[in-house]
Design the sequence.
């Protein structure tokens, strides 16, 4: 149903470069404010598929099909205590084998016994819910928005035209590392007052997990255990943070929370609050709804790791779907080598050649290009 919603909600301002190279402005409805109106229809700008289409009957290769197929078996769940401590070598080897299979076949996996105290996760949950519990005016007063390739602060990103279908999501973006990356920018919310402290505690713990996984992933390939981690610098490596809020949606069959994509990172760490059932992964030409317990962390293999591993690990293609009567929060951390670092793929065995088409890339240049072109599964 088409309806003028200009008088119903507030708007984020977004900028994009059109096909003629002209800088354009776009007013994007604030999804949380739309959800507060308890609409019984989906505004036209958010519609992804025809209202008359049967998404289940659509070809399974159609990326925009919005279906809800449960994963028949849960994602592999890695016991980090066995990998990090490794007292029982046989147990550790089995866990590494499971890790390798997950990174190769799924491009994502769950982790348990990771050592992040429940108190730290609870604090993150409290500040995230506290921020999104504010009015739109209070949120805008609490944090700024900066129009760069990743639109740090409170607002909308990935807006590339006036006619693209919009995601049913509100989002907050910060850079947690390097420490001075946001110096002088008001991208960390001032309300709740402990927002930054809570998130940075989580980042510190999660970064150690990522480092352990980088070592472990190298081990599974029988290469030098430092081969991946040496690309990361304690002072200069980057951790980007995205807080995602998915309000209840009046037509989950027509809308997406986040468009299908891969992560441009090396590794991503995700925690979700309040609800599950919102994440789907594209595997075997089908969208599968991930069984993700709310008390587990999820790890995504990103594009940079696919490049570093020369395609041995796959960057997962995934998306977020909407739910009618459920709100969902997630926090994603994206772990990258320094922006100026040049990374290259592993060579293939004794031949010392690269047969998979991956090339050296400069991390910052890859990320900028990623945001501009919005890659597809085959590009």
Sequence:
């Amino acid at each position: 149903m088409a309806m003028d919603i200009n008088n119903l909600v507030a708007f984020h301002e977004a900028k994009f470069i059109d096909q003629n190279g002209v800088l354009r402005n776009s007013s994007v409805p604030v999804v949380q404010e739309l959800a507060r109106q308890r609409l019984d229809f989906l505004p036209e700008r958010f519609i992804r598929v025809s209202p008359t289409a049967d998404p289940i009957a659509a070809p399974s290769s159609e990326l925009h099909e919005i279906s809800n197929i449960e994963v028949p078996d849960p994602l592999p769940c890695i016991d980090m205590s066995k990998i990090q401590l490794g007292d029982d070598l046989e147990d550790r080897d089995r866990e590494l084998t499971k890790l390798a299979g997950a990174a190769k076949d799924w491009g994502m996996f769950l982790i348990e016994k990771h050592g992040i105290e429940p108190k730290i996760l609870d604090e993150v949950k409290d500040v995230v819910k506290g921020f999104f519990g504010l009015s739109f005016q209070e949120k805008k007063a609490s944090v700024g928005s900066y129009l760069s390739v990743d639109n740090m602060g409170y607002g909308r990103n990935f807006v590339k035209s006036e006619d693209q279908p919009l995601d049913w999501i509100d989002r907050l973006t910060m850079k947690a590392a390097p420490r001075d990356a946001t110096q002088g920018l008001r991208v960390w919310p001032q309300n709740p007052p402990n927002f930054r402290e809570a998130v940075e505690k989580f980042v510190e713990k999660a970064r150690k997990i990522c480092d352990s996984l980088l070592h472990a992933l190298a081990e599974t390939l029988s290469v030098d255990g430092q081969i991946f981690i040496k690309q990361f610098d304690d002072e200069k490596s980057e951790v980007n943070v995205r807080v995602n809020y998915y309000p209840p949606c009046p037509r989950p069959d027509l809308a997406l929370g986040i468009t299908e994509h891969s992560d441009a990172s090396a590794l991503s760490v995700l925690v979700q609050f309040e609800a599950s059932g919102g994440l789907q992964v594209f595997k075997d030409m089908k969208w599968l709804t991930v069984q993700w317990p709310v008390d587990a962390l999820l790890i995504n293999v990103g594009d940079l790791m696919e490049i570093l591993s020369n395609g041995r690990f796959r960057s997962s293609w995934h998306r977020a779907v909407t739910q009618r009567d459920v709100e969902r929060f997630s926090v994603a951390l994206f772990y990258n080598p320094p922006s100026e670092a040049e990374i290259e793929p592993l060579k293939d065995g004794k031949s010392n050649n690269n047969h998979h088409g991956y090339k050296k890339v400069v991390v910052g240049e890859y990320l900028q290009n990623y945001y501009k072109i919005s890659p597809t599964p085959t590009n």
In short: Confidence is low (pLDDT under 50) at residues 51-63.
